[in-house]
Amino acid sequence: MVLTLLGIESSCDDSAAAVVRSDRAVLSSVVEGQAALHAPFGGVVPEIAARAHAEKLDGCVARALAEAGVGLADLDAVAVTSGPGLIGGVLSGVMLARGIAAATGLPLVGVNHLAGHALTPRLTDGLEFPYLMLLVSGGHCQFLMVSGPGEFRRLGGTIDDAPGEAFDKVAKLLALPQPGGPPLEAEALKGDAKRFALPRPLLDRPGCDMSFSGLKTAVLRARDALIAEHGGLRRQDRADLCASFQAAVAAVLAEKTRRALAESEAPVLAVAGGVAANSVIRAALQGVCEKAGVGFTAPPLRLCTDNAAMIAWAGIEKLQAGLVDPADLTARPRWPLDAMAAPMIGSGKKGAKA
């Protein structure tokens, strides 16, 4: 039996809805970004994001259904990101999904946003379990051994900033537009990656954990030294800093990937998240896989960044396993995929952050 699910995603600053079938057909995928709303503030403002979700999500759902050529009566369930993320945004999506489920009698499936990313290669490439997933984005960076729809074992992750967050912060330091990844990569094409000897954090320690906060600070110090020496930041200086920073991130991710592949003995590495679109980083990861003799796959960019198609697919996997949620599904700001692993970035009354 082919299942058809509506997916809803609102964990950060993208309002999204999609309709996906269990035969891996993406009938529609609508994403409403909020970049213009947050640009004046140099980053995502949670309150603004939550209000925008509340205003846009129902329109996204209507568009997704129309583009897919289906109605609510044609659906088998509603899947929604119920965590982790900015709580106002997550709550907006959960309440909309609860309302649709209550009005139609459809099953409700709460999806971990990270599981959506981790299971995307099964939607795009039909990848079989098990495989190693490197989730590398603005908010997350983890190595996950994926053995089933709900079976995730974390091998390592960042102990501070995620790579995408570091890209954004470095771009801001160098007066580049936000989000920082694409403009920094474009600037790096004009630079010398060997000019600045930036650190490769945690490569001197065993394991697969990563750190990018100190690398960002090293760029800040190099920038300040250049400004003090020349009375400003010259165009070539900025390009060289971008290239050197990008090379350092690629080197760290490549080495940690090599270790994760050796530890897991996984046959395939899958990469998801916006940072996976960076050509230098992707080439470095592909090189590691070729040397190790394992496969490499990365979903297309539109399904690497936040989207609702991955949420619908993860909902399909859960529904096929007989996993549905109660009508009073709650929003969770924190929700580690591997509940048995020690917290990466601290823990509090609400649970582990990652």
UniProtKB/TrEMBL annotation:
GO terms for cellular component: cytoplasm
Enzyme Commission code: 2.3.1.234
Entry-linked Gene3D superfamilies: 3.30.420.40
Localization per Swiss-Prot or TrEMBL: Cytoplasm
Any GO MF annotation of the entry: iron ion binding
Keywords assigned: Acyltransferase, Cytoplasm, Iron, Metal-binding, Transferase, tRNA processing
GO biological process, one term: tRNA threonylcarbamoyladenosine modification
Primary location: cytoplasm
Organismal lineage: Bacteria, Pseudomonadati, Pseudomonadota, Alphaproteobacteria, Rhodobacterales
Residues of the Gcp-like domain: 26-313
Enzyme class: transferase
Cofactor note: Binds 1 Fe(2+) ion per subunit.
Family: Belongs to the KAE1 / TsaD family.
Pfam families given in the database record: TsaD
Name assigned to this protein: tRNA N6-adenosine threonylcarbamoyltransferase
Reactions catalysed according to its record: L-threonylcarbamoyladenylate + adenosine(37) in tRNA = N(6)-L-threonylcarbamoyladenosine(37) in tRNA + AMP + H(+)
Residue numbers binding substrate: L135, V136, S137, G138, G139, D168, G181, E185, N278
Cofactors: Fe(2+)
Binding site for Fe cation: H113, H117, D306
Function: Required for the formation of a threonylcarbamoyl group on adenosine at position 37 (t(6)A37) in tRNAs that read codons beginning with adenine. Is involved in the transfer of the threonylcarbamoyl moiety of threonylcarbamoyl-AMP (TC-AMP) to the N6 group of A37, together with TsaE and TsaB. TsaD likely plays a direct catalytic role in this reaction.
Stretches that traverse the bilayer: none
